[in-house]
Amino acid sequence: MVWVSATRRANRGPSAAAGNRAALIAAAREVFATNGFDAPLSLIARTAGVGQGVLYRHFPTRAALALAVFEENLTEVETLAADPGTTVADVLAVIVDQVTASAAFIAMLDPTSDDPRVLEPACRLLTLLDTKLADPAQRGGIRAGLGATDLVLAVAMLAAVLARTDVASRQTTAEHAWALLLHGLLD
User: Fold this and answer.
1) 106 and 98 in contact (C-beta within 8 Å)?
2) Sign, Cα dihedral of 116, 152, 33, 79
3) Which of 48, 50, 104, 115 could link 37 by a cystine bridge, Cβ 3.0 to 4.6 Å?
4) What is the C-alpha to C-alpha distance for residues 46 and 151, in angstroms, rounded to an integer?
5) Domains in the chain, ordered, with CATH?
6) Phi, psi (rounded to 5 degrees) for 168
7) Band of pLDDT at residue 160, cut at 50, 70 and 90
8) Which residues bind DNA (predicted)?
9) Closest CA to 182 of 149, 158, 161
10) 179 has a pLDDT exceeding 80
11) Is 142 helix (H, G, I), strand (E, B) or coil?
12) Cα Rg of the chain (Å, integer)
């Protein structure tokens, strides 16, 4: 007879794959936000309640895991942007909240990257911002002459500041820095 410790999780096999993946993405978002992009992957696996083998089965590299988190963030932004009643400012507010939660993901916005895994989501973001900017009703007070790349640059500037800000003061710093940047973006 084999005894299994009560603290050890039973292996649920392939039926657990979707849940494990979701748990890993949620844990990565939390751990990267608190500990930075270089946080130990073992901490992410522990936080998700899975072993490292499960983590690597779903995400063979740190970049693959970060891209999965970024993909979820981008999906949230796309869902908001699809509503014609939202403005560019509404979309930027969500992006700023995401960057504030985890400045580590701003590298994923780099539209000059040669990596197609990074380039595709960055192009999607630029396209949705350009679409919102093209409609005067959705422009939301953003100064004429500014484009999507200008907005992404402003968010990248915020992220650069936040990447060097301790977690305890990140929210306050983000609010102040974004208010300064927004002053230059609005009419």
Assistant:
1) no
2) negative
3) 104
4) 36
5) 15-60 (1.10.10.60), 62-185 (1.10.357)
6) -60, -35
7) confident
8) 40-59
9) 158
10) yes
11) strand
12) 19
